[in-house]
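pasting for the record
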Amino acid sequence: MIPGIDVSGWQGEIGWEEVARFGIKWAGIRATYGTMPDGTFKRNVSDALKAGIKVLPYHCSTTESPEKEARSFLEVVEEAIWPTAVAIDVEQASGRYQPAQMVQWIGAFNSVLNTKPTKTVRFIYSNWSFLESLSPHLPSGFAPTQPTSGAGMHLWLAVWSNSPPPAPEPWRFWSAWQYSSRGEIPGIRGPVDLDLMTEDAFNTAFGAQSPGQSGGPPTINASDLAALERVRSLLSSAAEAAQEAATLMRGILGP
């Protein structure tokens, strides 16, 4: 199991180097609540990545339009990182929507994420009872069939317990488990949520991560562009030289 935490603006300024030295390998970091950005997100992402901690940006759903919330989420996230995985926290909305409505909401949110050219591994976070209530309304394929699958929505289950919980139907397994809300971690003032992620889910969720730019993956820097242009020029010259050599040889050898 891979140890992690999840944080938001409630934690204030975080000493991510201390967090990393304590052994934390990944962090769920809140990007948005409804359509409102979390003001600590960009700094937390940058500092966590510099400390060698993998980042899972997450969104807290509310009663706003799912399309509006998804667009706000993407805008905030892509200013800080080009993510390999993202999560939707539906716990806050669990008391505001009926299960069938919540499933429709999640589908509409995911439809906006699906417009992006790069596929992300998806996690859904909530408590056991609410996730179980969604079960009769979930479409086929909603739950991944394999821990290493990039499809479906991986389960990030909140059950504060000393024993690993079972997964609610239709999930056959959980990928991440929030087991405490009262963790004490060096570099963080006050209590923090503690999580574990399976090794399969960790390897599936997190590829190479680096600060990105809005609208697409990290861009090629100026020196790399210059090198690519030089390669193109050399290849072009080589092709022209080969064509000239072939012409000369035909002249020497005759028809």
